[in-house]
Write a structure and sequence with these properties.
InterPro entries: DUF4913 (IPR032584). With 122 residues, this protein is mainly α. The chain contains 3 helices and no strands.
Length: 122
């Protein structure tokens, strides 16, 4: 997704995160369970929360099975929250009121199986 579609989806995800997920499942922030108040600046958090939100809509919405909410808690909520709030996870180094950006791991060649780069002219 990109452009307006990405912005719409990110807004919907943000509303769900701020009005459903965090009030009910947020728990206290500690060094053992960090959370970043600027979670949307962590690409990993966006990806995991987006999947969690889609599963929530599928398993708790109209027409979902009676055991859908229990399955969502067991199969999606717990693993995602454990991953996000792991002391070495995406919010490592973030503290309440203090966001810390993460450096991406280095990559030697962006497309190692693509065509070789064109020679540069001097």
């Amino acid at each position: 997704m990109e452009g307006p579609e990405y912005a719409r989806n990110l807004r919907q995800l943000t509303l769900w995160t701020h009005h459903v997920l965090l009030p009910v499942y947020g728990r206290e922030i500690t060094s053992a369970a960090p959370w970043c108040s600027r979670w949307w600046e962590h690409q990993e958090a966006i990806a995991q929360l987006h999947g969690l939100w889609l599963a929530w809509a599928d398993l708790t919405g109209p027409g979902s099975p009676m055991n859908g909410p229990a399955n969502w808690h067991r199969d999606y909520l717990s693993p995602v929250m454990q991953s996000l709030r792991d002391p070495e996870g995406p919010f490592a180094g973030c503290k309440p009121g203090s966001h810390r950006s993460k450096d991406q791991p280095p990559v030697d060649v962006l497309d190692p199986f693509g065509p070789p780069p064109a020679p540069t002219r001097r």
